[in-house]
Amino acid sequence: MSSFNYTIHVIGAGHLGAALIQGLLSSGILPNQIFITEHHPKRRQLITQELGVANHSNEPIDITLLCIKPQQLSKLVLIDSYSTKVMISTLAGTEINHLNQHLKKWPIVRAMPNLAAFYQASMTALYTNDQSDTIRSMVNMLFQRIGQLIWLEKESHMHLATAIVGSGPAFFLDLFSHIIHIDKKSPIEVMLYGAIESTIALAKNSNGDIQSIINAITSPGGTTEAGLKMMQENKSAKNLAEVFEVTIKKSKGLQGKNTVLS
């Protein structure tokens, strides 16, 4: 992996902030390149002691990662002398025009990673209206170290990214946990995770025709057909899709609730 010569300031070292820090450290970034701001004293002490990063004390920063909750934005105060080359916001449902009212000085990039950043396995969705190749290059170098990334052409797609990338792992894990309980005495977890990897490979190579793969797996009168019939009767797939739709709606609702200081 290419060298990374930038400094990073993580504002908010909760679950996501800490996962990003750990993933970046595991990728080879040095602890002295990362600074944190965390208002919970115990959490701040835990992160600095366990991960070896330092509290931020107004050092000039290359990349700022804003990992606070959307409702905390109006309480964020950055001193006039604060210096950063780019501000990356992970706030759900908070559009750039709102962020600009509070963070006027810097180019802003919206990012939606997930907790798999801890294992350098995150998918990160990105959006910016800044046209600087330098900014995009910095952001690419950062998030490539913790997994895959995709740049979105429309900011409205960040609501979908929030549901799929940010919240999606929780929905799938909840589903997995119910499957695992079918037979905890068997090696069901190994088989389940292997089947998930197989499914991803099939989907990626489907050329968009997922139904043909389902048909190929399903034999008339067989086990797959019985399971699919139950899914159709219970509207399982439809209900799961609605879970994502509700999450998208919630993300859009956060935009209206955010109070941003000018």
What does this structure look like?
This protein has 262 residues and is of the alpha/beta class. It has two domains: 8-155, NAD(P)-binding Rossmann-like Domain (Rossmann fold), CATH 3.40.50; 162-253, ProC C-terminal domain-like fold. Helices cover 47% and strands 13% of the residues. Strands 3-2-1-4-5-6-7-8 form an eight-stranded mixed sheet, with helices on both faces. The protein is elongated, with a radius of gyration of 21 Å.
Provide the descriptors you would attach to this structure in a database record.
262 residues, 8 strands, ProC C-terminal domain-like fold, 8-stranded mixed sheet, Rossmann fold, elongated, 47% helix, single chain, alpha/beta
Residue ranges: pLDDT <50 for 5 or more in a row? 258-262
Count of the separate structural domains:
2
| CATH-defined fold name of the largest domain | Rossmann fold
- The best one-word shape is elongated
Provide a count of the helices.
Answer: 9
CATH class of the largest domain: Alpha Beta
Rg over C-alpha atoms, rounded to the nearest angstrom = 21 Å
CATH architecture of the largest domain: 3-Layer(aba) Sandwich
Measured as a percent range, the helix fraction is: 40-55%
Query: Strand percentage, roughly?
Result: 5-15%
What is the mean pLDDT? 94
N- to C-terminal distance: 41 Å
Q: How are helices and strands ordered from N to C?
A: EHEHEEEHEEHEHHHHH
CATH superfamily (homologous) name of the largest domain: NAD(P)-binding Rossmann-like Domain
